[in-house]
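Support request, please re-run this one:
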Amino acid sequence: MEARGIAYHNSDPYFTVFKIPQWRANLYKFMSVSLWGALPGKLQRRISSFYAKLYNKPFTKHFIAPYVRFYYADSCYLDKFQPPEGKNTFESFQDFFIRRFKTLPENRSMWIWPCEGLLCDEGFVRDMGTTKVKSDERFIETIFGLSRGSIPDDYCFSNIFLHNKNYHRIHAPVKGIITRIQHIPGDLIVLRPWIYKQDPSLPAFTNERYNIDITDSKGRIWHLSIVGGPAVGTIKLPDTISIGSGIEKLDELALFYLGSTCCMAVPERPRYHSKNTFVEVGATY
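Re-run finished. Output below.
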């Protein structure tokens, strides 16, 4: 059974923010990169930790119902999820944020999308160009902690931005073996792609991230980068995720405690999705 298509999500009204004026995008970028980004990393994480602790407070559970009503037309939206960590109820907003599927989506396709969000950047590695960060020239390989030329030119790069309302667990896009896990400390600048109109993936070059490689049955490497942003308390990998371990399609790779982006460089091109469309966990890649 294949996961449902993307027609509904292509019309998601909350992503019309790409139409904001350039002057406003420039202002937001300045505040994110030049002001917030200039703060010492320890201070950024301290502030982020405060937000994470705040959303763990019991009173924040009262935010969940109005939040769901505001963002979801489906009044039964929460019925397909359950609280995390074996809880019977959502005890805080953080519990809602890291909600789990009661039953994972089913899809016979060999390759699926690993998360839910806006596909804000997409294209062949050879066409992605470079990014200037603090006067340094960086390449797509930089995101994944690799040297230039390590990823084949015909690989496809994609960046999925996870809005606060989205499901925040990352799943394996393909069956294979985990062949690399790398943690890169970094900044926690704002992730929202519409404030980096000319370079929506800029935060992925600078922010803290976990890089995970999955080698599929054909010996091809699927590169994933799980990127944190402001207010991220932590990026957590399940205990089952280790180098050399086998992984099935849709197995959980990571979860975020607030705010995130997931980048991929993989040997296949998306079949049904293009830049600025919405993707779902388990939908055909």
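The first helix runs from residue 7 to 10. The chain has one domain: 7-279.
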